Amino acid sequence: MSRENSLSADVIVVGSGPGGATVARELTKAGKKVLILERGDDFRNKFYYGTYLGAVIYSERRSLLFTKEGLNIIAPIMVGGATSMYCGCAAPPPTWLKDKYGINLNAEVNQTIHELNIKPLPEELRGEASTRIAHAAKALGYDWYAQPKFMDPDRSIKLGKKFKCHATTMLGCRCGAKWNAAEWVDDAVLNGAQLKTKARVSRVIIENGRAVGVEGKISGKNFKAFADTVVLSAGGIGSPRVMQASGFSQAGVGMTMDTTVMVYGFTKQNGTGKEPPMTWSWENDKDGYMLSTLTDPWLLYPMVAIRKGLGPALRWYQWNKMLGIMIKLKDDTSGGVYPNGKISKPLTSGDEKSLNSANEVCKKILIEAGADKSSIFMTPFRGTHPSGTVRVGEMLDINLQSEAKGLYVCDASVFPESLDRPTVLTIISLGKRLAKHLLN
Ligand SMILES: Cc1cc2nc3c(=O)[nH]c(=O)nc-3n(C[C@H](O)[C@H](O)[C@H](O)COP(=O)(O)OP(=O)(O)OC[C@H]3O[C@@H](n4cnc5c(N)ncnc54)[C@H](O)[C@@H]3O)c2cc1C
To answer: What is the pTM (predicted TM-score) of this model?
Structure first.
């Protein structure tokens, strides 16, 4: 395939989650010619978008992606990346990103908060049971706060729809209230970007220590694309795979996940299932975990609970009598994404200590909130933040550039350690910062 017959641009962006969408949007605003290559399709107008069927269709390995240790990873493959299925929570980057690694995102964070109107849901929409959990926690001395969201009920009203971002928003948002990075891909395309979907990049073409393009398959057919700058934003699993195939053997060695479990307890009152996810949160930075209100969508609950035994699964009929608290761990870097396609994410003894401490706090809060003590149980591990696989400070410099000139990475894989909080605001801010760097 000759260079003349191939695609070309000023900048190639691989992946269209929050990292890729932000970089593409910012660069096209400044007049750059951008080519976005996205492995998945755009499912937003499909009848099954935001349904259980949809989640099976657009998640990697039909939602059955497991690590060697049995941790279930949800990795959406589609325009907008995982923001199609996220809970819409926004958290500023941890202070250590600036203090320890010299990455100051204050300006970009403030700009994004303003641009996307990020704030907690109005009090009356935070959910009665979720608010009961937050009040119980406060009564015990844990200062929970109303979680800022990328969710705005007014956006639904403007679309003539009813705000309905409940647990099922994790299958995809059908009411339009939740911001999705696909909207910034739309902006980039309006500004002149070329978007190729079903385009899976396999490797970066590097000549004399410089990235000059990428190659892979579009709808099963081989292609090459050329540009002076390549930005990998294929996510915490996708980016290290492309890096490995491009000769970076350290990519994917070690991984963070903000490893997650749910702690459930049954009550006589209504539970958190029919309420917006993660409306109240609390962080314990000292012990390394975050807690938030959340329940698995109705049809997913038995599939999760059966792995804990018949007892919890048989209480499916009481799904809406359940109070749920999610634990996210600041897990150590461990395991990794291997060239043979396998993924490993073992818990370290430090992770187990944090988990035990978080579980004890959750039990106390659930009991205080009215849950029957004997009904409380913890679900198996899962991961929705695959990250830390192409770490800044190790494989990337402070501007996110790799050893190959012109090859940048901008997504969750660049985190130098587990963020242990919602990732998207940090990733968007990194994207804005990288775009400024590239334009300078
Ligand atoms: C159920 C769920 C709930 C979540 N809730 C929240 C939340 O409330 N708040 C929050 O901040 N975060 C949340 N997250 C996490 C957050 O959505 C992700 O961490 C974030 O989207 C990662 O962004 P990214 O740009 O790194 O990659 P992704 O969003 O994963 O995007 C990567 C993109 O690259 C594409 N791609 C992969 N490989 C290739 C390739 N070889 N070639 C071309 N394209 C490729 C993928 O199809 C994908 O579209 C949640 C995640 C899930 C799954």
So the answer is: 0.98
